[in-house]
Please model this.
Amino acid sequence: MAESLKERQARMAEKLKTEAPKTPLQEVNPVTEAESNKTTQNNPVAADGSELVQLNCKVSKRLLKGVRQSALDQDKEIRDVVREALEEYLAKRT
Model:
């Protein structure tokens, strides 16, 4: 007869209690300020010297197609076209 779920769980629990782990446990160390600064140093930098960060948003297929075409026409990366459009938009609002 097949082993029941409770029997399998009991067997696995006993095995965990008696056998040493086969893989070492990961050591957890607190992040120091120096290590924290390392992560920001690897990020790309904008033309004005500010650190670039990632922005995700959902847009319509029509808008994405237009941005892709604009980037292709200008021989630019999509991110550059979007960044320029956002900067232009914010400049007009202030």
Observations:
- The two ends are 76 Å apart (CA to CA).
- The CA atoms of residues 35 and 41 lie 10 Å apart.
- The mean pLDDT is 85.
